[in-house]
Write a structure and sequence with these properties.
mainly alpha, globular, homodimer, 3 strands, about 140 residues, DNA-binding
Chain lengths: ~140, ~140
DNA sequence: CTTTGAATATTAGCCGGCTAATGGTAGCTT
DNA sequence: AAGCTACCATTAGCCGGCTAATATTCAAAG
C-alpha cells in the first residue's frame, strides 16, 4: 500500500504548508494563527460563551481558553459575566478587536490567492465544494 | 467579505477535524500524530539524515528533532553516526519500527474511509488530484 | 431542602509546530 | 595552515492542539 496515494495523506500534507501560510498572514496583522478563527466567530456573533465558541471552531474548551488568554492580554477581546449563569462568561470584541478585521480581510485575500495560485477558477470552485462536503 | 467562502478558510476548517482523526488512528497503533509522517519517509528510504527528513516532511529541523526524540525513546528508530560527516546522524528503523507499518496501514485504510465517507468515488478522485496540485 | 448530577471554566501536563540562538564540523579561500 | 563561511544538530522558549482532573455553579430529583 502507498500512503502517498490516499486522500488522508494528501490532505495532511497540504495542511502543513497551509498552516504556515496562515501563520504568516495572521502575524502580519498582529494575530497568532490560532486566534484568527476565534475572532472570525466573534465577528459573526459577538458576546458568545467560551463553550459555544469552542463548538463553533471545533476546538476543545481548554484550547479556546488558552487562545482567549492571548486575545485578552493583547486587548482584542474583553470578558464579562453571563447575566443569568455564574458559570459562564461572555466574550466581547474590543474596538481594537473590531478594527483588526479590515486588516485581516486584506491579508486573507492575499492568502487566498497564494493558496489557489496553481489552480484554475473551476478547479478552485470544485475544491471549495469538496472541502465543504468533507466536514459537514 | 465572507471568510467562510474562501478556500483558505475551508481548508483550515477541514484540517482541524482531519488532524483529530489522524491522532486517533495513530494512537491506536502506538504512535503519536506527528510521528507517522516521519515514519512514512523512513519506510520509503531508511537511514536518512534529520535535515533531509525535515525537508521531505516539510517541517523545521527542530520539530523533526523533537519527534525523533519520542521515536528513539519508544524504540521505533535508532541513531547512528554518518560515516563521512561528523555533523550529521543517520536515522534507522528498528525491527519494531519496521513492524508497525502493517498496523498503521490497516488503521490508515479506516481513516481513508472515514475521511472520504461523504464523497463519491469520482469526487474522491477529484479531491486527491486537486490536493496534489495545491502543494506541488 | 438536600443531594446528586450535569455544565462551565480553568489548571496541569503532554505532543507538535515554529523562530532564534548555540556549538561543532566541513569546506573553501587566502 | 588560518580563518571565514556554510551546514547540521540541538536547546530554549513561544503558541496551539489535546486529555484528564478540579472547582464552581446550576438544575433536577428525592
Amino acid at each position: 500500500m502507498q500512503f502517498e496515494d490516499t486522500a488522508a495523506y494528501l490532505l495532511a500534507k497540504a495542511t502543513v504548508l497551509h498552516k504556515n501560510a496562515i501563520q504568516k498572514y495572521a502575524n502580519s496583522v498582529g494575530l497568532h494563527s490560532g486566534q484568527v478563527f476565534v475572532m472570525m466567530e466573534l465577528w459573526k456573533v459577538d458576546g458568545q460563551r467560551q463553550i459555544d465558541l469552542a463548538a463553533r471552531v471545533n476546538l476543545s474548551p481548554p484550547t479556546v481558553n488558552k487562545i482567549l488568554g492571548g486575545l485578552l492580554e493583547n486587548d482584542f477581546v474583553t470578558c464579562a459575566r453571563y447575566e443569568d449563569d455564574a458559570r459562564s462568561t461572555r466574550i466581547f470584541l474590543t474596538p481594537k478587536g473590531v478594527q483588526v478585521r479590515d486588516a485581516l480581510e486584506e491579508a486573507w485575500i492575499e492568502l487566498e490567492e497564494q493558496t489557489l495560485g496553481s489552480l484554475t477558477d473551476t478547479e478552485a470552485l470544485m475544491l471549495k465544494q469538496l472541502l465543504e462536503k468533507l466536514f459537514l
